[in-house]
Amino acid sequence: MPKAVNIVFGICVALFTAGCGVSTSSLGSSAKEVAVSFVEPPSIEKQINRVATASAIIKSNQFIMKKMPISIDATWMDEITKDITEEQENRILNKLKQDPYFGTVILTNVQQGIPGALMGILSPLEKSLYQRVDTFYSQYPNNIYTLTADTNKLLNFQGGTTKPVRAIKGDRYANLEAAIISMLPVNTQKDLQKAIKEYEKSTEAVLKKKELIGKLTKDEASKKQNEEKIAVAEHEIKELEKTADEKEKIMDEQWKLSIASIDTGINDKKIVLAKKIKKVLTSMNDGAIQAGVLYATATAKAYTAIGQIKDEIKRLGIATAASPSLMTKRIARLKDNALMLVPNIAVGTYLIVKQQIFIGKYTDVIDKVASIGDDREKFAKK
Q1: Residues whose CB falls within 8 Å of the CB of residue 104, separated by 6 or more in sequence, listed in order
Q2: Domain ranges of the chain
Q3: d(Cα 133, Cα 126) in Å, to the nearest integer?
Q4: Going by C-beta distance under 8 Å and a sequence separation of 6 or more, which residues neighbour residue 44?
């Protein structure tokens, strides 16, 4: 237990030392999540759900970067940077009634005699996740809370129907990255996009190897059986990370060159868009930190719960009579997810670091464009 306490304490320290780049609401939600973890009864399912939430937050960041259309009129950019409303939370809860966990958690909380203060269906950071999901999707993606070792499924939501994005006042871009690159000089864009592609290819190779190591180390029996394979994979991953580091340096130079060349006569509409994007980047940085908090909290708390998983499944089985269909699915998902816990954390923590690299580069562009806009406004006033 002391080890777990030290880990969670470390999370709190990391949160507040990183506070300069994090929104106040994100700090509050993350601190509440850690506080709740201290007082809740030991439960491996709770920790698995934290890992699933973290992985889904990472997916939502990736979705913004690569898939969510963007324009000056895009309302989602404002919606994900506000506090969740009671109306939206009620809509989310209504849609989650058919989820095996969320549809039955009140039932099992009552069975366990969990205090009323901990009876909420959504934890503080689950609210943050589902606020994004509800903002992006009219029909939610499939199996958000099913853990997997598949790197494609760890990066991308499966299924779902995205809401339309308007583009009346300005251009419509395929995603955040496309919008940001459009603000750079045309003659630097091709080289930058090539460098980004090469870097992403190198990190994908690392991810695949981490996925393999995660599978080989999912439990003590696997570790013992695959000692030689694990040693080989760990050696290979060091070489792949060296290549990724080299590609990152090349990409970094291209970003610097492109940013230094930004035209001070940039279109006014792009300046307006840049100022809206700045809030989105803060939200994405919040998300990356929240995912890290969830992974660390789950790892710390799992020490006190992993030995009780058989008793936990047995206890859930008793509640099956009250909701046979959902509880049967909930127990099956818990068993499957328990095997995927380590691979998710291994790959997910790597993804957080890589996402923050891009968030940093995007922020450098946006700050430069926004500062041009500020200078333009000052000049106009004079």
Answers
A1: 319, 322, 323, 326, 327, 330
A2: 2-183+276-381, 184-261
A3: 10
A4: 302, 305, 306, 308, 309, 312, 334, 338
User: 11 CB contacts (<8 Å, ≥6 apart)?
Assistant: 30, 34, 293, 296, 297, 300
The whole-angstrom separation of Cα 47 and Cα 306 is 10
User: Other CB atoms closer than 10 Å to residue 259's CB: what's the count?
Assistant: 19
- Amino acid, single-letter form, for residue 82: K
10-residue averages of pLDDT along the chain (382 residues): 45 45 65 76 88 96 95 92 92 94 89 67 91 96 88 90 86 94 96 98 94 82 87 94 97 97 91 94 93 90 74 87 91 90 87 94 96 84 75
Instruction: Please list the alpha-helical segments (H only) found in 40-85.
Output: 44-66, 76-79
Q: What's phi and psi for 162, nearest 5 deg?
A: -80, 150
In terms of phi and psi (left: phi > 0; alpha: psi -120 to 50; beta: otherwise), the region of 160 is left
Task: Take residue 113 and report the two structure tokens written for it.
Answer: 């005699």
Joined together, the tokens standing for residue 158 give: 């499966």
Strand partners, 158: 142
Give whole-number Cα distances, 354 to 118, 166, 168, 291, 363, in Å.
34, 30, 33, 13, 14
Give the separation between CA 109 and CA 121, rounded to whole angstroms: 10
Report pTM.
Answer: 0.89
The CA distances from residue 57 to 51, 88, 121, 369, in Å, are 10, 18, 18, 28
